[in-house]
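Extended Data, panel c. Modelled sequence:
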Amino acid sequence: MRRGSIVQLILIGVLAGAVASAVALIPDWLPTSASREAGRIDFVFWFVTGICIFVFSIVAAVIVYSIWKFRARPDDDSDGLPIHGHTGLEIVWTAIPTVLVTAIAIVSAIVLAKDDAAGANPLRINVYAQQFFWTFDYPGYNNKGSHVLRLPVDRSVVLTMHAKDVLHSFWVPEFRQKQDLVPGLRPTLHITPDKVGTYPLICTELCGLGHALMRSRVVVMLPDAFEKWAQAKQ
């Protein structure tokens, strides 16, 4: 391939990458981060997005260059030149995706392991999902019950999930984590909220006619305020 063609391919790839990067970075796609785990998950998101932009730039450059340089004239019905295999090229386009997918798998595994590791003295809470509402109780506070999930800021929390009837799914966008609730199973979810505020809790598994209304709130409080609420009588 001539040097001029390589330069043209690179310029097209850079332009495609710039457009894709602008689409990825300019809009505010992600909700506010409100947990330590969310920061690590966001890193994986942007790591994978960067790889996708890199691959997109190469593919877009080759497609645009091919359409531009090798397009047939309207009256040209002749066959193109025969194409032969290129072993080196085939090795390259197999090896590069293998390396990229392996990198994604390693980074994801490290982040998942860190997110699953509960800190010292975690607050344990039972989460119950039932058509079409959420309830919570706190074993460390005489099984105090609530229809709103209240958490102390900057403290490790372990949620034990219980589905009373059908499949449900626990999701707080600001925490980034989602956990399916399956009848008969008791999965856990580790969260360390790091920002005081009120956030929506949404069921993201179709669970019946009232699924769209199966919502609650997560209130992240200062430690003293949480203790005052938790110690108060039911």
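The radius of gyration is 26 Å. This feature is highlighted in the accompanying rendering.
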